[in-house]
Amino acid sequence: MQLPAPRGPLTERLFAELARPPHAFGPPPAGPYGDRHSNQHGDRHCDPCFGDEDAQLALFVCYELHYQGFDGVDDRWEWNPSLLALRERLETWFEGWLARRVPRPPAPPSREVPRALAALVAADDGPSLSAYLRSRANTAQFREFVVHRSIYQLKEADPHTWGIPRLLGRPKAALVEIQSDEYGGGRPERMHAELFRATMRGLGLDDSYGAYLGLVPGVTLAITNVMSLFGLHRRRRGALLGHLAAFEMTSSLPNRRYSQGLRRLGGDAGARRYFDEHVQADAVHEQIAAHDMCGAFAAEHPGLTGDILYGAACALTLDRLFAEHLLGRWREGRTSLRETDAEVTVR
């Protein structure tokens, strides 16, 4: 993957540093990411999802060094102290925003965690992006949706896999069971990331990893960044499991609708296979995630039940913001992607 174009002084500075061999560098330019109390009054210009795309992209790039990295960027940057110091500042900024934007659900007794997760999901009243894509979206809009989703889906499951070495016993086995399905049960062609590539090809899109990173807005980056935030910190392992549970518990019906929408628009069985696979797989995964994974983890760590519910709430909140962004832009007759010259490659 190539580094995208910078979106402000922070990414300009960061990308210039990354182009050189690993070295110590000083503090980045001043910005909201340097103040843990920034945006306390809801200033949209400092909002991690919508206003400060410069900082959100910088955080994504810092995290991506733990995944596939970037062409021309030395792999030794991954654990460079200056890079990690910048990442810590960005994480503090992002965590502060999440704490203000996502109400922390009450911590239930450990035995009630599966039921509390189900109630939290049932109470979510965000707009239905899947219903729109099933019945009303045109081909250009469906392609945009797939472009947004490609930022995570082409590395599907990887952020949650960080949790495996941080668990023991039953919750660990449950997470491995879910992840094994995500990775195709040992068959590369059945990996969900590979199935998503087939969807992209069926829509005439570039299926290479990170091809559209420069086109997606901050809210799309935030969806992936929150998974990395939870996955890369052991202290956030409860939130990571709750996030995955919410992810699985809200997947089966929407994916059925995505498949129906793509079929309406002429998508063949190969292009729809990714969505069809998730209709069945995630109906099973949601039970494993809620009971065998989160329920068992809560029984072992009753003090972390609140973290489990908080991780789920973060997933639901960001999905709602994502849906609001896409549907709002489409209602206005505008693209949901960043309006750059590269837009023509999608539309």
3D structure, described in words:
This protein has 347 residues and is mostly helical. The chain folds into 2 domains: 93 residues, no CATH class; 236 residues, Heme oxygenase-like (Heme Oxygenase, Chain A, Up-down Bundle). Helix content is 59%, strand content 0%. The chain contains 14 helices and no strands. Helix 4 runs parallel beside helix 14, helix 9 runs antiparallel to helix 13 and helix 12 packs antiparallel against helix 13. The longest helix is centred in the last third of the chain and has 32 residues. The chain is globular and about 50 Å long. The protein starts with 8 loop residues before the first helix and ends in a 16-residue tail after the last helix.
Largest sheet descriptor: none
Uncertain residue ranges? 35-46
Q: How many domains comprise the coordinates?
A: 2
Range of strand content: under 5%
Helices and strands: which structural class? Answer: mainly alpha
- The H-level CATH homologous superfamily of the largest domain, spelled out, is Heme oxygenase-like
Radius of gyration: 19 Å
**What is the residue-mean pLDDT, rounded to a whole number?**
92
CATH class of the largest domain: Mainly Alpha
Helical coverage, percent range: 55-70%
Distance between the termini: 22 Å
What is the tally of beta strands?
0
Number of helices: 14
CATH topology of the largest domain, what is it called?
A: Heme Oxygenase, Chain A
The CATH architecture of the largest domain would be: Up-down Bundle
The gross shape turns out to be globular
Pfam family, one: Haem_oxygenas_2
Keywords: Membrane, Transmembrane, Transmembrane helix
Protein name: Iron-containing redox enzyme
Transmembrane segments: 209-232
